[in-house]
Design goal:
Blueprint lengths: L6 H7 L8 H24 L10 H82 L7 H11 L5
Helix pairs in contact: 2-3, 3-4
Length: 160
Amino acid sequence: MEQGWVGPQLNSCMWILHLLPDSVILAFCNILLATGIVATAAGFFAHRIPVLWSYQLPFKIGGIALLVLGVYFRGGLAVETEWRERVAAVEARLAVAEKASADANTQIETKTQKQVAQIRQRMTYVRQYVDREVVKYNDQCSIPQPFVDAHNRAAEAPLK
């Protein structure tokens, strides 16, 4: 999407508006609107005042230009305010989601620690059993069935 000749120049200066309080920007827009209305009205009624009769056209053109700029800036301010409200709503939802994520992570960590403790307990039990059984069959070269069963039980998933 290509922007016109005004677009990039205005967009590059919009960050300056973030430095000003919203009340100052709103006051500027309202003053611009009021000045545009007064200047336009003066342009239309200038033909009745002999001193201002020659300035009738500049008052009309300047007043309408100020009026258009005031409406444009007021609309831009309204859009900016709407986007700030949207960002605030998304940030609030994000904070809720982060809290829920932290709670879920805590639950997962607790569950994982319990499972690790069960596995270690089972591993300790199997080691003790193997140590007891190795003494019985240490002088033979065959692998007894209880030893194989103990090895298989150690490889199984822990019971829940």
